[in-house]
Task: structure prediction
Amino acid sequence: MHAWPASEVPALPGKGADLQIHDTATGGRVTLDPGPVARIYVCGITPYDATHIGHAATYNAFDLVQRVWLDTKRQVHYVQNVTDVDDPLLERAVRDGQDWTELAERETALFREDMTALRMLPPKHYIGAVEAIPGIVPLVERLRDCGAAYELEGDVYFSVESDTHFGEVSRLDAETMRLLSAERGGDPERPGKKNPLDPMLWMAAREGEPSWDGGSLGRGRPGWHIECVAIALDHLGMGFDVQGGGSDLAFPHHEMGASHAQALTGEHPFAQAYVHAGMVALNGEKMSKSKGNLVFVSKLRHDGVDPAAIRLALLGHHYRDDWEWTDRVLQDAVERLARWRAAVSRPDGPSADALVDEIRAALADDLDAPSALRAVDRWAALQQSGGGTREDAPGLVSRAVDALLGVAL
Result:
């Protein structure tokens, strides 16, 4: 599966500081100090509907992580998956009378278009669950053979008790885990499981549903969590720098994935930091496909909204905060974009060296994009008042905003 084209990232003088970021597993801030190549895995979409603002906010957060790392003169090895076979996708295809593969391909293509328009840097490896199945099957077999998994009526489940570190990612109590498992694709009430929280690794073939050769597992398809584990281990290995996604993935997805990997390898941790973006609401409720209260990036673009304004609307909120999308949020971003473009269109202006330092410092401080935006606002206000004569200033501001914030002026 191919990703989307990369936009050019302008080079800036000097280099940025190492990123300090909130780690869900420790509940506090950690300083990330990758080697020459920083490694990040971000969980991708289940392509049964178009990219909504909640998706865009999440991918914007991890695009900033990449940009901070690039500004420290590191390379970035970024991996993202596509869950192109799963219950929600199959259910939507049946509901709409569509072939599930055609639905997945269409929505994945639209996602690529949205990411390109928003200037999100693409992953080096963009892997679909279906294409990963040949690498998933041996991992499930290994977990079963070492006693970390068991069969139940043809299905294969992971035993959470096989990982002594289970629970360390989300830091939730057992009852909360059980409730969230039921809400987020688990089956804690199924009779015969060793532990209600045990997640499925391999689902035996069901009539009318797609299935693949699972070797000694029989025909079937993979569970959600093992998909990402197989892709991450294959392309990044254990102990990569950041596991990222929305806050609703901390449990069960990232918790279970970490335990799968740790049981497979005997190593800990799966990732050095678990970073989660907040949820975006509309009309007082979390924006989600199940509720249908969605604002689609493609619809905004079709209506003539500049993708740079959409990106500024996302950047106006701290990535960890839950916030609400409104017409006012978008209008404020449109007006900000106009002010910035007017400011950099002049032939000279106030020195921008300090501004670049401010943007870098804000982003290194747990991706504080709102503070970075306010710093650019202050420079634009000085520019409007005729506060400088540096001929290189507008160009440097434009390059910095593009390189660090992903906004083309």
